[in-house]
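Hi R.,

As promised on Friday, here is the backbone we talked about, encoded as structure tokens. Could you run it through your design pipeline when you get a chance and send me back a sequence?
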């Protein structure tokens, strides 16, 4: 997939997730600040590291490294969006 196709996939996935979960990420940022974003991104990065190891035996068999990386990208973008909305620097 091209960068543009991946970006579009990311947008569509986030729309579906927001329909299911609401704006829980933004609400968490409102309540706890940037540490909430750092925590979520850290969790995704740790998941990425875990999935990189060939000898790992993940319990969630259908999660791909690509899915985790796209989630990480989405959290980064949503954090930038929140910072700009709240004029937080």
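Update: got your reply. Pasting your designed sequence below so it's all in one thread:
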């Amino acid at each position: 997939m091209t960068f543009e196709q991946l970006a579009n996939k990311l947008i569509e996935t986030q729309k579906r997730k927001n329909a299911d979960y609401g704006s829980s990420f933004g609400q968490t940022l409102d309540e706890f600040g940037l540490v909430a974003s750092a925590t979520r991104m850290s969790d995704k990065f740790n998941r990425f590291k875990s999935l990189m190891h060939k000898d790992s035996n993940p319990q969630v068999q259908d999660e791909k490294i690509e899915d985790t990386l796209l989630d990480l990208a989405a959290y980064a973008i949503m954090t930038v969006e929140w910072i700009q909305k709240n004029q937080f620097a």
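One thing I noticed while checking it: The longest helix spans residues 65-86.

Thanks again,
M.
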